[in-house]
Amino acid sequence: MSPVPWSAIAKYVEEAHSFKGRVERADCMDLAFANHAPDDVIDALDALGSRLFPTVAAAREFLVAQNQVAP
Predict the structure, then answer these.
(1) 20 belongs to a structural domain
(2) Tens of pLDDT along 18-27?
(3) 20 to 30 A Cα–Cα from 22, which one of 30, 36, 48, 56?
(4) Are 24 and 71 in contact (CB under 8 A)?
(5) Mind listing the pLDDT tens digit for each residue in 45-70?
(6) Residue 24 forms beta bridges with which residues?
(7) Which residues, 6 or more positions from 3, have their beta carbon under 8 angstroms from its beta carbon?
(8) Helix, strand, or coil here: 64?
(9) Residue 26 burial class via C-beta count within 10 angstroms: exposed 0-12, middle 13-18, buried 19 and up
C-alpha cells in the first residue's frame, strides 16, 4: 500500500484535535467513517493505534514515519 497524501486525512486529524486538544485514533476514525472516507484513508488513520498525540504535527510525523502518509 502506498502512502496517502496528507491532504486526504488532514481534516480528520485537525477536527479530532479540535475536540480535546489532542489526536486520538477513535476520534479520527469516527470522523472518517461518518464522512465515508476511502479505505486507504481509514487504513492510514488506523495506524495511529492507541497512541495519543498532543499536536496535529506530532500525529503527522508519526504517520509519515510509518509510511502511511506521504512526506
Answers:
(1) yes
(2) 999 999 999 9
(3) 36
(4) no
(5) 999 999 999 999 999 999 999 999 99
(6) 52
(7) 44, 64, 67, 68, 69, 70
(8) helix
(9) exposed
**Domain region containing 46:** 6-65
The total number of structural domains in the chain stands at 1
Name the average pLDDT for the chain: 97
Question: Is residue 58 one of the residues assigned to a domain?
Answer: yes
Residue 71 lies in a domain: no
Closest CA to 4 of 50, 37, 51, 33: 37
Phi-psi region of 35 (alpha: psi -120 to 50; beta: other; left: phi over 0): alpha
Cell 464522512 belongs to which residue?
A: 35
